[in-house]
Design a protein that fits this description.
single chain, mainly alpha, 88% helix, rod-shaped
Length: 107
Amino acid sequence: MCNERDILGMQLIKRNDELSQLYEKIKIQQTTLNAGERAYAERVADIAALQMDLATLKAEGHMLKASVANMDMLRHEGLQLERELLQERTKVRALAPTPTPNPNLNP
């Protein structure tokens, strides 16, 4: 009887040690899981911020493309106006009276 009691006592101590080891492993895994959840939440926040930045940059890109198209149109219009100005200056020179030499100015 004492022998059985000693055996049961030893088994109980062994099981308690195993149980405490399992609880320690659970505690370590829970800590690791919590750290992983925090890291995941940070990455999700980073992704959301980057997606917002991407949307902003896309909108800015579209605006820049529109302004480049507008610049081409303005450049073309500027060249057209320069041609018209040159034509008008040519007309003014053609219509301007030619200066006659002043005989009083010659020595």
